[in-house]
Design brief:
The protein has 402 residues and is mainly α. It is 66% helix and 1% strand. It has a two-stranded antiparallel sheet with strand order 1-2. A hairpin with a 2-residue loop joins strand 1 and strand 2.
């Protein structure tokens, strides 16, 4: 039963919370009521059985808990209209009673009144159900800092009266960048092992492409996610992470790769400013990685263009890897040494690999240990430990400087 409850949480959290926010217009109250509904489910379902429609049951239960809270605090005059509604028992309800409002939730969280980092973080918390600690890691910031951002974002939505809706057509293009960033980060979190989040990102990506059929970047993001997700079955072996070069290509989903390339073709065929945008380029890179042999000069060139557009040191790190494959590890290491990413584990892991290829074993060991000190994921930790063992070194991580 515990496994069933965990699965329902992963599958239903975003939809239940979105329905409650749409109903209440209050993020905090909706989140509290949703949490209470899941707590009630954990108590009752082992005794009474799982409802036929768990999502509808949870929405109904959360709604009733919210109304109870409002009744207990009658100073919330603005919400007294809810008390006039006829209350129902927490019986199973047809799912069509509650429309899927997750897309409205994305656009609400991505309102321009909020800073971009707050937009993305809030949507990851509300729609994806990620913990504050998980979001903090995605942003490379401390958990207290992220907690403050989330609180401020919810207060801003309430104070500014930001509407819970998909914006009208003439405002959609300007709101698209933040929404795509949200979906991208949800997918990235899911790609690291949480398959339900990757599936959620793909569902949202398809919805965005349908909602905005003439936006190249919406199609390109979906294409990129499809191409990357097609490799999921080969990314882990017995719980251990398998790097792209070592993956069993027979496990790749050929139909999904074809689907991703078809969506990319659609993006490339569309006119407009997004035709050479960041997601189009990333989708093109993902498509090239599905080829054998890989065209490293073209991949390096695309990363160069992406780095020019984004000015991101993380993108430049990826370019360094491609350059190393094209021109040798010394050329890649030259790029890596210029990057200011001291607290980014992948920089140290990449540096360790390039130093290993150059025969600079002692330096490679130090770089791998530095990466190991920064890693949070168990599969990545085991991979780094294997690399150190191959170099004949114990896997004690180097201390992280204060």
């Amino acid at each position: 039963m515990v496994a069933i409850l965990e699965q329902v949480f992963r599958d239903q959290w975003g939809r239940v919370l979105a329905a409650l926010i749409g109903f209440l217009g209050d993020f905090d109250l909706a989140e509290e009521a949703t949490q209470e509904a899941f707590a009630v489910a954990a108590e009752r379902w082992p005794r009474d059985g799982v409802p036929v429609n768990p999502g509808a049951w949870l929405v109904t239960t959360a709604r009733n808990r919210a109304i109870d809270r409002i009744r207990r605090n009658r100073t919330l005059v603005a919400k007294t209209r809810l008390l006039q509604m006829s209350e129902t028992a927490e019986d199973p309800v047809d799912a069509t009673t509650f429309p899927d409002e997750r897309l409205e939730l994305v656009f609400t969280c991505c309102h321009p009144a909020l800073a971009t980092d707050a937009q993305v973080a809030l949507t990851l918390r509300t729609l994806g159900g990620l913990s504050t600690a998980e979001i903090a890691r995605a942003f490379l910031v401390g958990e207290p800092t992220m907690a403050q951002r989330l609180v401020r974002a919810k207060r801003k939505i309430k104070a500014a009266g930001i509407p819970f809706r998909v914006p009208p057509d003439h405002l959609l293009p300007d709101r698209l960048a933040a929404v795509l960033a949200v979906v991208y980060l949800i997918f990235n979190e899911g790609y690291g092992g949480r398959g339900e989040l990757a599936a959620e990102a793909l569902r949202l990506g398809r919805a965005l492409a349908e909602l905005m059929p003439n936006e190249p970047e919406a199609h390109a993001l979906l294409a990129m996610m499809l191409l990357l997700e097609a490799r999921r079955a080969s990314r882990f072996l017995g719980g251990d992470l398998v790097l792209l070069a070592d993956q069993d290509r027979s496990l790749w989903d050929a139909a999904q790769i074809a689907d991703g390339r078809s969506v990319l073709d659609r993006a490339l065929a569309l006119p407009g400013r997004g035709a050479g945008g960041v997601y189009v380029i990333q989708a093109a890179i993902a498509s090239l990685h599905a080829d054998e042999p890989r065209d490293w000069p073209q991949i390096a060139a695309l990363y160069g263009e992406l780095a020019r557009l984004t000015e991101s040191p993380v993108v430049e790190l990826n370019r360094a890897v491609a350059v190393a494959e094209e021109r040798g590890p010394e050329a890649g290491l030259e790029i890596v040494e210029r990057l200011a990413l001291e607290d980014y584990r992948y920089l140290h892991a990449t540096r360790g690999e390039l130093l290993r290829r150059l025969g600079r074993t002692a330096e490679a060991r130090d770089a791998y240990r530095r990466a190991l000190a920064l890693v949070h994921d168990d599969a990545e930790r085991r991979l780094l430990q294997r690399r150190l063992a191959e170099l004949g070194a114990p896997a004690s991580p180097a201390p992280v400087p204060d």
